[in-house]
Amino acid sequence: MISINTNPAASAAAYSLDNVSRNLQKTLTRLSTGSRIVSPMDDAGGLAVSMRLNAAVRRTEATQSNVSNAQAFLETQDGVLRSAEKVVNRLAELTQLGSDVTKSTNDLALYQAEVNSLKAQIGSLISESFNGVSLFTQSANTTNPDTTGTVSITASQDGSQTINITKADLGLLGNIMGSTSATGTGLDITTIAKATAAITTVTKAIQAIATLRANNGAEQSRLGFAADVLAVNKTNLESAASRITEVDIAEESAKLARFSILQQAGVAMLAQANQSTGSLLRLLS
């Protein structure tokens, strides 16, 4: 049937052109944004998964920051311990000098003045802190370190793993050296006999500072490995999210070329369909 009231060919061409134009617009948007999921209806499930993965990436970054801060805490702590080590080494030198039989009482008194000053320095180091958090604790004796001073660090983005770092018991060293109020043998080199006996005390102090630094190093090592794991996990999470949400440029470029050609063909066919009814007028002339 030939009719001038309806033009099925033009309607079909217009419908096809509209679909092609929508697909072309979607492809252009994907290429311009770099995202495969332009709207939730493109991939509702993929969007939900990608949101969870992106949230995990952000939490991993925050955890990395926390672990880095914990490493800085331990590095600062070790810096103070290195200072304490230098003080103890100087005290060891002074006790050896004080045990020299050629030293007079006045000489020993001068040595003792420096010993007292260095003992006070050990006591002042105990109060050092990192961002308002104390670096050290203080035991009440000269033999058993305080093990209650720990700080728990979250080492995974889901909070399932934690690492405890220690507030080193520098107070134990202070007690040994007689730098604090706790009862200790202290250091007295005012006589040759006392200076000789003080060597044992200094040896004990050296062992204490060595233990503190060794523990600090072990905790730094563990945090370093935890930071490595977090970096790898972040990379994997970002890769997984990318595969879901980011557009394949090569594939989308091919679609762009296809839809562009179809759009041009659709426009031409719609024009042709609209002109086909004009030939019916010749039948009436």
- Largest sheet: spatial strand order: 1-2
Unreliable runs? none
Which fold name fills CATH's third level, the topology of the largest domain?
Answer: f41 fragment of flagellin, N-terminal domain
**Major sheet characteristics:** 2 strands, antiparallel
In DSSP terms (H or I, runs of 4 or more residues), the helix count works out at 7
- The total domain count is 2
Q: What would you call the shape?
A: rod-shaped
Strand fraction band?
Answer: under 5%
Would you report the number of β strands? 4
Structural class of the secondary structure composition?
mainly alpha
Radius of gyration: 39 Å
Q: Please tell me the CATH architecture of the largest domain by its name.
A: Up-down Bundle
What are the secondary-structure elements, in order, as H or E? HHHEEEEHHHH
**The CATH H-level homologous superfamily of the largest domain:** f41 fragment of flagellin, N-terminal domain
Percent helix, as a range, is: 55-70%
